[in-house]
Specification:
alpha/beta, 432 residues, 4-stranded antiparallel beta sheet, 15 helices
Length: 432
């Protein structure tokens, strides 16, 4: 991993604010002290120097359009697609302007027609039902359990109640993966095409294989808060040649431009698709690809660092808070997780007022922790007015009311996570 360069002013500023401090704060107690954090919770992972140089060189030439090259092999986007496909183990890869575009095209390439129903998690980010709506589908929501994953039993129930539903778009929210063997079994038994939203699960392995291989295709994200960062961006991945060809054409490989791809099938598969399918112009730019490509080589050491910090943080929280919290458990089939954030289920003994007081305490001490079930949270299905749930979702509703979420920025120091444990613990103890 290439070293990162920072200006002297930036380094001095970082040192000036990096440490938490402890001040008296608890009302009514002259001796009680509280931990404060003075770091930005939304600090993204930086771009390696190699990516900065490559993007700068592209900008100096002006060749930022993926097809403005003489051959596929010299395209920054094609080179990036090769690295992504190699990492995830997929045969075909098409780089796009966002993961939302990837999800929409997954549905289109799988044969979704206007009005078709799509099973999806009741707990996910609003971009997932938005992609279903964008593709012309109608979302049918499946309950999510206290481990924050899709409930296979409810999927089976919903598919039996909706025999005309032939698509399931499962979202691995915050990298958490459901029982994919059972999910696939249920989908297969009901003639339902399985698709995987892997926006949060880059680097996560199920049964020793990278996520995204149980479904016929998957999408990953390079939005700034994900494991690879190009600001905005996404990748469509599949082993199906026809789907890959359709995706490339939908994304903008018009006329004979598929020849300037490396990770798509040959011209015999494309046939006359460029005249049959619309061009939605969803291509990734060469600059975004140049920024992403060197980050792939940094994934493993970063994952190791994220996971160590997460395990240390969980150990501290569980030791101090006991049954006041529970940490979502990984599905047994998950053989490698990526913990770039932490989710906590608060005990049912806390009232809604106490939960809000906890959030307020965390925020006032420098740690903005989010409640998934908050009335303004885009991960709360009640806020999807454009694709509302038509049936009650009691399991998901109960989980969301007490499920909190906190990022774990890589650029923070180890001491900052000691402070994070203290702020969370002190804030929860203060509202008892």
């Amino acid at each position: 991993m290439a070293p990162f360069k920072y200006s002297t002013v930036a380094l001095l500023a970082a040192f000036a604010i990096s440490d938490a401090y402890v001040n008296p704060s608890s009302p009514g107690s002259a001796t009680s002290k509280r931990t404060f954090i003075n770091r930005d919770i939304k600090t993204p992972d930086p771009v390696p120097e190699e990516g900065i140089i490559a993007a700068s060189e592209l900008m100096s030439t002006g060749r930022m359009y993926r097809y403005n090259v003489l051959s596929a092999e010299e395209s920054a986007v094609s080179q990036c697609e090769v690295e992504i496909a190699k990492y995830t183990g997929h045969k075909y890869c098409v780089a796009l302007n966002s993961c939302g575009s990837a999800l929409m095209l997954m549905l289109k390439c799988a044969g979704l027609e206007n009005g078709d129903k799509v099973m999806s998690n009741a707990f996910t980010f609003g971009a997932v039902p938005s992609a279903i709506e964008h593709a012309g589908g109608k979302a049918v929501y499946v309950e999510s359990n206290y481990d924050h994953v899709m409930c296979p039993d409810d999927l089976e129930k919903k598919l039996k109640a909706n025999p005309d539903c032939k698509f399931c778009l499962i979202s691995h929210m915050r990298g958490k993966v459901a029982d994919m063997d059972r999910i696939k079994e249920v989908c297969d038994a009901n003639d339902c095409i399985l698709l995987e939203d892997c926006a949060h699960s880059l680097g996560v392995f199920y049964d020793g294989v990278h996520t995204g291989h149980k479904g016929v295709s998957c999408g990953i994200s390079s939005q700034s808060y994900k494991m690879i960062n190009s600001g905005e961006g996404g990748f469509y991945l599949t082993d199906d040649p026809v789907m890959a060809a359709k995706c490339a054409v939908y994304a903008g490989a018009y006329e004979g431009l598929s020849a300037k791809h490396v990770t798509v099938p040959g011209p015999e598969v494309f046939g006359d698709l460029p005249t049959q399918l619309p061009n939605y112009s969803l291509r990734m730019s060469a600059v975004a690809a140049a920024i992403v490509k060197p980050q792939v080589a940094t994934l493993e050491p970063r994952i190791e660092k994220y996971n160590k910090r997460y395990n240390d943080l969980v150990e501290k929280l569980e030791a101090r808070l006991g049954d006041l919290i529970s940490i979502p458990k990984l599905t047994p089939g998950v053989t490698r997780m990526v913990h770039d954030s932490i989710q906590i289920n608060l005990s049912e003994k806390f009232s809604e007022e106490q939960v809000q007081a906890f959030l307020d305490e965390c925020k006032s001490h420098g740690l903005p922790v989010e409640l998934f079930g908050h009335k303004s949270n885009a991960r709360n299905f009640i806020n999807w007015k454009f694709a509302p749930a038509e049936e009650p979702l009691p399991m998901t509703t109960a989980m969301l009311k007490r499920a909190v979420d906190c990022r774990m920025p890589l650029m923070w120091d180890d001491q900052d996570f000691e402070d994070m444990a203290n702020v969370i613990s002190e804030s929860l103890e203060s509202v008892l």
